[in-house]
Amino acid sequence: MRLFLSFLLMIGTSGHVFSQSSDESSIRQIYNEELARGKSYQMLEYLTTHIGARLSGSPGAAAAVEWGRHELDNFADSVFLQPVMVPHWVRGQKEVGRVINSKKRGVVEMNVCALGMSVGTGPAGVTGSIVEVKSFDELKQLGEKNVKGKIVFFNRPMDPTKFNTFEAYGGAVEQRALGPSEAAKYGAVGVIVRSMGLNQEDYPHTGGLRYTPNIAKLPAIAISTKHADLLSKILKDEKDIQFYFETHCETLPDAPSFNVVAELVGSEFPNEIIVVGGHLDSWDLAQGAHDDGAGCVQSMEVLRLFKMIGYKPKRTIRVVLFMNEENGLRGGLEYARQAELKKEKHIAALESDDGGFTPRGFTMTASEAVRSKIKGWKPLLEPYGLYDFSHEGGGADIGPLQAQGVPIIGFLPDSQRYFDYHHTQEDTIDKVSKRELELGAASMASLIYLIDKYGL
Amino acid sequence: MRLFLSFLLMIGTSGHVFSQSSDESSIRQIYNEELARGKSYQMLEYLTTHIGARLSGSPGAAAAVEWGRHELDNFADSVFLQPVMVPHWVRGQKEVGRVINSKKRGVVEMNVCALGMSVGTGPAGVTGSIVEVKSFDELKQLGEKNVKGKIVFFNRPMDPTKFNTFEAYGGAVEQRALGPSEAAKYGAVGVIVRSMGLNQEDYPHTGGLRYTPNIAKLPAIAISTKHADLLSKILKDEKDIQFYFETHCETLPDAPSFNVVAELVGSEFPNEIIVVGGHLDSWDLAQGAHDDGAGCVQSMEVLRLFKMIGYKPKRTIRVVLFMNEENGLRGGLEYARQAELKKEKHIAALESDDGGFTPRGFTMTASEAVRSKIKGWKPLLEPYGLYDFSHEGGGADIGPLQAQGVPIIGFLPDSQRYFDYHHTQEDTIDKVSKRELELGAASMASLIYLIDKYGL
């Protein structure tokens, strides 16, 4: 009996060791391939420097679609373009913003930019005195009598004490997204929003606003964090300050565009689909290197890595470069709609849209069983710095798949530098570390490998 | 009995909860203070831009000592300078390195720099044909008949597949440190070493060499990774290539310098000392922002944070800004010598010298009991991204304390970007993320707080 038990234990142990060590070695191969001969950085370099900004409806976005299709053709079984109509907002000529009558300082030029989807002021601009507030509550308390005819300046900073900067963003971004409509309720004529950044910076951060239906659409700008502080100081120093700003943005009719979709067809379960993706569109002020060129090339790299190491997936691995995450989410919505129409079976969706920074782990929105299964792979992934599997999350573009019961997974990179660049002119390729980007691609490929091999 | 047991359990539980939650809240306070009002970045900005390079014996090093003393005076109980004689190597005028007779390319200028502590060629330079090798074994096999009178080119790259870049460095750096003396054994006249970097770069990495006693001292240069590849390609293309290089470095007599030492005196156990430090000297090519200005300001910040949150340590917290880590370790050796002479009781030493990048954990060289105790604090530290306590380590400057049985701890930041800048002109303040630096300072302060409170 004792001998027999030992024998059973031996089988159990060696079986476990074998599988563990085969996975260990496949994952090692993925990382080796990417770190020694990865193409993610080279692809990102092309996308960011040869194509650059690619807001939905722009020529850059169209070029990016063609680029994505062409690149994926090199290592996918098939590539197709999924049509989707997208919002088409254009910034127009460079914005101006200035204090026009400071007694101490004269005219003070400020670094500003229109918020995405904002209406423009046109050449007449907007002039008004400023009401600075830190919250919607404060605005409400001031009420129409203090706000009417004025420009509301939302100046609540992101909270620097949050360890995860996305939490700090989450605590401030309503000012940008909803502030213009909130201000309109009390008769304001325009809105200035403190940029969503943690540092003292010279450049403004753009990003989308959402007008509430049936409320006046106010023109709205972001102001750099340095100038937000300066403006606040001027307002404390002097009464009767007048501010002028001029924006030339407008929303054109919806434009045709595409999600780029590429597949490696599964050898055993071709109808079981695992999605990995990022969004191809970016704001217009920069190259969209971290947001979200990084996520696109990392997702593309998953397919290429499988090819390179000779891994033939059991299930269908589908790369999706989503269009229009930044100002509409039309790509993500259309992808989910088509999946439902075609009754496709998605077993998981993974998105990378938190930047190409050094990996920390994965976030998940899924059943407890799925979460446990993924957490069970931690020993295989922790040697590569992936230790954090504890948070809920996913990605905007794959979010709509959730309604179909698809487990949603987010790649979780380190968040510390993300908001130094987010939605600004500074989101350029030189801010991306080649190795950090590559580790992200290899992390994603490793997780997809495990999901493909063991299911979810 | 049952009631009594429940009561005991309640005490136990609530006692545990209290202590855990008090530590949680102290650590939260440390992070809040640093992330909202930290001075580490401001200090580093001054050190790197107003003082800049500070190789041992240089005016920059002397200025840095004065700066350190002055800054620490703001928040330490006492500051003193610990005298130490240091090597005094100077680079002299800019180096040149070139292929002088390529048939296809003519004269090809290369980006090179003298290795630290190298003898110079003087104005006559060194000319010779090149023997490229990847290892000391290969050199040995070639032997004197193939090497004599020639320039040896060590061109083994760092292994990009290592997750921790310090491992990749460890696998290649013998070429720089020992290569010149190895080459001299076979009658070489000069040495070129591939820069210790993982990227394709235009700039060379300096760093120290160590001549073996009683072997000829060959002049030695580092070549940028791009030019190492180019040189290797030229050597494959063409026979009879001649290389010329010229360096003007020299070693002057040892110079007087100092470790900067500052204390908060312990309230209960003033004779128990906890050291936290980095090294104040840097290579001469850049500002030494990550190496190791970051470690210095993070260590200084530990004291300032304790002051700011009103924490009075039980034990004496001693900040040491060590002199001469880069080319001699005289500061670290002298500090340990004095500690032994004075029979000081050091209960732990923590060094930050792996860059001001986002924190990952701590490395340790200590008894199993000490390691377990520190690992036991992981639940308090993991919310701040500190999860890795598994590796052996410490720091060069605190290494000599090990002989006295002192537990040695290294701050472990993410390693991915370190060798993009290490020992190069690129190690500048703009490569440091303010938040990443601050998180490092807060991580170190939190660990020191726990060591101080509970002992080791």
UniProtKB/TrEMBL annotation, chains A, B:
Which InterPro entries has this protein been placed in?
CPQ, Peptidase_M28
Where does the Peptidase M28 domain start and stop, copy by copy?
Answer: 259-439
The record, for Gene3D superfamilies, names: 3.50.30.30, Zn peptidases (3.40.630.10)
The UniProt entry, under Pfam families, shows:
Peptidase_M28 (PF04389)
Supply the SUPFAM superfamilies for this chain. Zn-dependent exopeptidases
Q: Where is the protein localized? A: Endoplasmic reticulum; Golgi apparatus; Lysosome; Secreted
- Identify the keywords attached in UniProt to this record, alphabetized: Carboxypeptidase, Endoplasmic reticulum, Glycoprotein, Golgi apparatus, Hydrolase, Lysosome, Metal-binding, Metalloprotease, Protease, Secreted, Signal, Zinc, Zymogen
Organism per entry? Ohtaekwangia kribbensis
- Could you tell me what this protein is called? Carboxypeptidase Q
- Subunit note: Homodimer. The monomeric form is inactive while the homodimer is active.
